[in-house]
């Protein structure tokens, strides 16, 4: 089984060919291809972590869609002072499908 650990949006994701992964928003249109930076590659018993060898590894993915995450409600309240604050947030996300690890 071949899989790679890639850096994506400040986090690390374990991906293999055919996986659908949700990342922080990537500036690419739906249907376009992007390259993900590999941090580790596992090919059966062989594990590659050396930086000079990882420069040869290409992890490419196709952008499936740009979407927004679920609404997160932030509420602050202080008793007896009349202070209350309500705020919402929806994270901008991108769903990608890993097409090749070479």
Automatic annotation (TrEMBL):
How it assembles, according to the record, is: Part of the 50S ribosomal subunit. Contacts protein L20.
Classification via NCBIfam families: L21
Output the Pfam families linked to this UniProt entry. Answer: Ribosomal_L21p (PF00829)
Q: Which family does it belong to?
A: Belongs to the bacterial ribosomal protein bL21 family.
Top-level taxon of the source organism:
Bacteria
What keywords appear on the UniProt entry? Ribonucleoprotein, Ribosomal protein, RNA-binding, rRNA-binding
Function field: This protein binds to 23S rRNA in the presence of protein L20.
Its lineage opens with: Bacteria, Bacillati, Actinomycetota, Actinomycetes, Micrococcales
Q: Would you name any one GO CC term?
A: ribosome
Q: Does the keyword Glycoprotein apply?
A: no
Question: Is the RNA-binding keyword given for this protein?
Answer: yes
What protein does this entry describe?
Large ribosomal subunit protein bL21
